[in-house]
Amino acid sequence: QFAYELRLRCQQLSRDMEELEERIRNLKKGIKPYPSQVTKLKRLLESELFARFHKTVEVSVFADLLEIRDPEWRDAIEGYLDRQKFNLLLPKEYYKAANEIYESAKKEENIYDTGLVDIGRLQKEFQNKIQEGSLAEEIETEREDARLYADFLLGNVIKCDDVKDLNKYRIAITRTVMLYKGYVSRKLNPARYADPFIGRRSMEILLESLSRQLQEGKKEYGKLSDDHRLVDRAARSAALSEYEAEQYRQAVLNGKELPSLSGELEKLVREYESIDFTWLTKLGEEIRVLKEEEASGQKRQTALQRQSARADEQRRSLEETVLPELAGKTGTLREEMGLKYEKEWMEGVAEPRFQKEAAQEGRVRLTLRESFSRARNQTSTMMDAHVKERRRKRSEYNQDYKMPYDIEREDNTEYDKELHNLSEIRLPQYISQIKDAKEKAYNQFRDDFIAKLKSNIEAVREQINELNNSLKNSVFGTDRYHFTMSPRAEYKNYYDMITDPMLLDTGGWNLTSEQFNAKYQKEIDSLFRALIINETELTAKRREEYEKSIRKFTDYKTYLVFDLIVTNDQGEEQRLSRTLLKKSGGETQIPFYISLLASFSQTCRIRSKGKDNTIRLIILDEAFSKMDGERIRESIPLLRQFGLQAIFSAPSEKISDISPFVDRNIAVYKSGHRSFTRYFDPAMVEEDGFREDDGDGC
User: Fold this and answer.
1) Sign of the C-alpha dihedral computed for residues 674, 680, 683 and 687 taken in this order
2) Residues 613-622 pLDDT 10s
């Protein structure tokens, strides 16, 4: 029975080895052992898409498009992706057709568990933002669609070096493939990453793994084959005597010890091979090097002894011959120099300079003649350069200012005279002219700018007073309204200067007056800087900034703040600027209406004598749509007080409130795409029973 079981196991191993050899042959051909469902669907889509569109459509396995940067994270990436790495990617414009092909063929071809990536929708909805330290950082790819899908799957899976850090993140994983997700930690099944598929390196790793499995299988197959032959032979042999059986039993027992003895033998062999016997060779090499150094030292010693002997000979020659000759020549030269140069110059200038030159270290020794010749040449070169620079500057000055001066002349008399003329005579004249121009500019600034601003501000103040006089007797419900004008806080200093009474003083006050300057010097300088362009070359941006600044500071509204004050029957006041957004539509229409009338009154110059010949007509659509009857009855007479005429367009439900206060009423009717108008008297509304659906407006 045991022999039969051994034979079955050998047959099983043989089939496994054949399968491994087949997978190894495919890997060597560049064919990865993908699940059959993946390869079947890939081939089907490529074939059907070509037949449908008559062009080759590339269908790629996701794993083939990726590379893993750090091999230490391969198991974590392979294990986390699991079967998602077998998903197929194709251009987004073919996704819909591919999905239809998949649906129609899934039952017939028995294809399942293989995904198609909707890269088009992923591009629209996924923001492509990955977390720092995520598994996506370990993925490298040249395909944009693969990069996007990898970031989507791995961009929020954080890498952790220690399992203690896993629960600090929503999803995290370690190199040992401990995963934290959904508040649960677990070790992923090694079967998920036993066979690598991602990247070109995966084929090498898988080939090594399969080759190792094949060798282990062959080793086990050989051992089981030997055991099978032994058992089979024993089963076929005749019965053994007691002595033979004991001998065989002892042999089997000894055979069981064979693996441990083989292990000890291998251990001893490894220890022997690990012993370093090269120390003897190294010691011999060191002895050889030392002997060579000793021989080299002896040679250097002999050479030094020879050099010492030559040095002694040279010293004796110098002491006995050369030095006496040099001493004689030095004495002769001193006598000649004493005759040629004065003693004071020799002692005060020449000798100290000679000692200084002689004491310099770190340079090649030169004779005094050579040293000073070089210095003279350098000085001459510098003088030539200065002469050229002087000639160039003189020439530029003559060209710029049209002067006839001699640029080659050694002295600078002509140019010194020109400098004196400019600095002592013409410059004071320019200063005087500049001062006079500044004074005129200040006067013009006062007359043309400040005066106009002041006039505009006073005119607006007068208009507001007139508007308030028109409003003081009008009550809207329980509210009264009046306009206010005040200086804008950030330009209060400018406002004070513009409206200062000193500008109206006939005693000679103006912008150049000492007291006015002392009071408003800062404001005057600031306005001049804002309004006067001092730059010679302006960019388009700077010119736009200057123009914007000029428009701002020449507009009198820049210095003012306007508001509408609402006073109720209790005498309580509220500013419209603070309550506008808090009130209902009807409550805000009255202030809007008053402001509108005030604006039209100013635009039509109604209160500007000599300039008030204007049509004064305003047209209001949906007039008084959010006002109640009481407010409407107060608003229309106010329009007359402002001196304006108006045309109202209003819904029919407002006829009873508006018609008694206007000069003429016209109803507009619609029939299909045609419109009709009819004049009516307000009394007709009551007599004929005017219906809301009879007309669209009046």
Assistant:
1) negative
2) 777 788 888 7
Distance from the Cα of residue 659 to its chain's centroid: 65
User: For residue 479, which of 398, 571, 380 has the smallest C-alpha distance?
Assistant: 571
Given a cut of 90, is residue 451 above it in pLDDT?
A: no
**From CA 565, how far away is CA 574, in angstroms rounded?**
6
d(CA 419, CA 413): 10
- Reduce the secondary structure of 423-464 to three states and give it as a string: HHHHHHHHHHHHHHHHHHHHHHHHHHHHHHHHHHHHHHHHHH
Helix (H, G, I), strand (E, B) or coil at 67: strand
**CB neighbour list of residue 85: distance below 8 Å, 6 or more residues apart:** 61, 62, 63, 66, 78, 197, 198
Torsion-angle region of residue 603: left (phi > 0), alpha (psi -120 to 50) or beta? alpha
Kindly state the average pLDDT of the residues 565-587: 74
| Euclidean distance between CA atoms 563 and 578, whole angstroms | 10
Tokens, residue 61: 């396995």
Bridge-based pairing of strands 158-160 and 171-174 is: parallel
200 pLDDT above the threshold of 80: no
Q: At 253, list the tokens.
A: 């027992």
Q: Give the N- to C-terminal CA distance of the chain in Å, as an integer.
A: 115
Cβ–Cβ contacts within 10 Å for residue 402, how many?
7
Residues 6 or more apart in contact with residue 524 via CB below 8 angstroms: 442, 445, 497, 511, 517
The pLDDT tens digits for 652-674 are: 788 888 888 888 888 888 888 88
Does the pTM surpass 0.85? The reply is no
Residue 248: both structure tokens together? 């065989």
Please give the pLDDT value at position 507.
Answer: 45
- Full DSSP string of 25-58: HHHHTT-----HHHHHHHHHHHHHHHHHHSS---
CA distances from 294 to 171, 217, 236, 696 (A): 71, 63, 81, 127
Whole-number Å distance between alpha carbons of 81 and 268: 46
DSSP letter for each residue of 595-637? HHHHHHHHHTTTTSTTS--S--EEEEETTTTT--HHHHHHHHH
Least confident of 13-27, 343-357, 660-674: 13-27
